[in-house]
Amino acid sequence: MGQSPKPQMNEPLAMWVPSSSMASEINATGFDDANLPGLRLPKNLRATADAAEAAAGADLLILVVARENMAEVVEQLKGKVKSTATAVVMSKILMPDPLSKEKGDKGSGLHFGSEFVSQALGIPAAVLMGGTLAADVARGYFAEATLGCKDPKVSEVLLELFNKPNFSVSSLPSPTAVELFAVLKAIIAVGAGFCDGLELGHNSKAAVIRLGAVELAKFARRFYPEEASKEALTEACGITDIIASSYGDSRTRRCAEAFAREPQKGWDQVAREKLRSGEPAGIAVLRTCAAFVRSHRAESDFPFLARVDEISASRAAPASLTEMAIPRVRASKALKVAVLGSGNWGCAIAKIIARNALRRTEFQKDVAMWVHEETVEGRKLTDIINEEHENVKYLPGVELPHNLHAESEVTTCVRDAHILVFVLPHQFLPGLLKSIKGAVLADAVGVSLVKGYLEIDRQTGSLTTGTQLIEAELGIPCAVLNGANVATDVAHDHFAEATLGCTSDQSQVLWNLLNTPQFSVRTTPDILGVELFGGLKNVVALAAGFSDGLGFPPNTKAAILRRGLQEMARLIKELYPSSSPDTLLESCGLADLLTTSYSGRNRLCAEAFAVASGTKSWEDIEKELLQGQKLQGPSTCADVWAMIEKRGLENKFPLFTAIQRAVTKEITPEGVFKCIGLVSAT
Ligand SMILES: NC(=O)c1ccc[n+]([C@@H]2O[C@H](COP(=O)([O-])OP(=O)(O)OC[C@H]3O[C@@H](n4cnc5c(N)ncnc54)[C@H](O)[C@@H]3O)[C@@H](O)[C@H]2O)c1
Ligand SMILES: O=P(O)(O)OC[C@H](O)CO
């Protein structure tokens, strides 16, 4: 490639296939029915079962070979490739490094595909990997990938070769950085598949994916400190690939789902039934990586990996995936708790709080819950809740603890309360605060579960968040709890995680109040980071709903979520430069974006909005689909947009800008994807 940097793509393109009968079939028909049924291959493609013949005279060798064929293909190529050629490896392969003992402590002990190919053929190897489920890429739907290439000149040529309007490629200077995420993400897809097989619901799945992503970043930092660039996680080879393979129909996820349903079948049988082949590639990656971690005696630092490995080796039951240690309780004075709000999430969290109050001596046993009174089938909602222990309108079918008391008088509810839990739709927060001002204890503490309260000063563009408003109006400190918490799943005790942003003096008591074995709370001092991630995901979830409404496949949806997550983090940094970059990987960040974008109300309504093609208003859709619950995305979006516009930041936030234009019908939902360059060829 050195002498001729621009490959000539108009010449016949040779493609190696595993058998001569397959080669003849493809050359005769123009179709590869085994791998890509129904799609005609380009006319200049010529199949051959002889790898050396396919590679003869080539400047560029694209290796996109199944794991089980890679060694054989490379063997056939040895000594037959041009010494100036470059390989581009797309196969996601991991093997134990045969040289690791000789390398001693310096050796990583793992061998990725690019290193294997480069060493065997004596030529440089780049990689190209991302959220690229093949069938959808072949059909022209938008997808994105990351090129890992050491040589900047070669990188330029490859970017030109691969970048298309519907296939967006960016580059990093290290192939290993790309492979670390794109290959090891298979372990996360195994965990995601287990969640699907166990039917754990979206919060649990988002929590499992988040735990996996955190461990993957930690693994990279620990064992590949030079290559592990922070960016790789938030590039297409990281977040996009993790999401596409955990939610799309990736082979690893599909097999793991089947294994969790019937572990007695074992991987071989599951793979035969689901893939018509042997053990899926992701399981080989999992085993190799787990053995490597054991050899470094580091299992206790990678509990997610260890647990997924135990389940896959039938040493633990699939259901143990989300087991958590039972927390210890510290006794102190009995605190009165008031829950302000009684909607879908209000009742689900009140159930947790009331159960913890019964168990733990530091809380008074009776918990008060303020209900915005209304009549349901001729009866007061407070009476129904107090007599039948069920909120039949907002959380039907879930029994509420008997020590939870519904109260319609808000000042009675907050009287003498030490802890005020704010959990109502953001649009009603200012009204509530006005009505309780002067009625709360001076040493009370607030904790806000409200997502999306962002008050923008239209003159200056300055921002007041919900916790800031509570502190200013009531003169009490306020913590925040946000996370991947679709309420109905939490109410049914499916495992979920949440992030508690609070000061150190509040953290123990609030954690004791909110944490349970099924609702795992992690604390951070980054209060505003937690709160803003919780609000901003409402906006990105609208784009996820548009993607579903328009029928876009998993690669495209994963790409829009990655772009959204980037803009969320960028806006938080812009507003609060001291916020922690680590908050993105807490439940309130990545995991909440996932659960909302796959099963939340914002997603649901935005999908309906896209399907209606401009014929329905948001108000009508909310009424039709949410049975009295509240949609937050469009109004949060308007607030975010006001902030962006006032500060002149449109260019830095193209996705938020485009979503606002679609929400207000200035452009179509499809226009959002076009505005940020996600164009599908179909
Ligand atoms: N539902 C979820 O899955 C979920 C999960 C996590 C966080 N959240 C967040 O929690 C907050 C509360 O959401 P929710 O799901 O409990 O509410 P919801 O969407 O179920 O909203 C209905 C609630 O609003 C109340 N209401 C209606 N008019 C009112 C008024 N004028 N004044 C005061 N209250 C009024 C209703 O009585 C009812 O309690 C929101 O910020 C939401 O984003 C929701
Ligand atoms: O249903 P949504 O879209 O309001 O999202 C619900 C929760 O915030 C998910 O954590």
From TrEMBL:
Domain Glycerol-3-phosphate dehydrogenase NAD-dependent N-terminal: 11-153, 336-506
Keyword annotations of the record: NAD, Oxidoreductase
Catalytic activity: sn-glycerol 3-phosphate + NAD(+) = dihydroxyacetone phosphate + NADH + H(+)
EC number in record: 1.1.1.8
Example of a GO MF term: NAD binding
InterPro entries assigned to the protein according to its UniProt record, in alphabetical order: 6-PGluconate_DH-like_C_sf, 6PGD_dom2, G3P_DH_NAD-dep, G3P_DH_NAD-dep_C, G3P_DH_NAD-dep_euk, G3P_DH_NAD-dep_N, NAD(P)-bd_dom_sf
Gene Ontology CC: cytosol
Residue ranges constituting the Glycerol-3-phosphate dehydrogenase NAD-dependent C-terminal domain according to the UniProt record: 177-321, 526-672
Gene Ontology BP annotations: carbohydrate metabolic process; glycerol-3-phosphate catabolic process
Any single Pfam family the record assigns to this protein: NAD_Gly3P_dh_N
Family: Belongs to the NAD-dependent glycerol-3-phosphate dehydrogenase family.
NCBIfam families according to UniProt: glycerol3P_DH (TIGR03376)
Name under which the protein is recorded: Glycerol-3-phosphate dehydrogenase [NAD(+)]
Gene expressing this chain: Gpdh
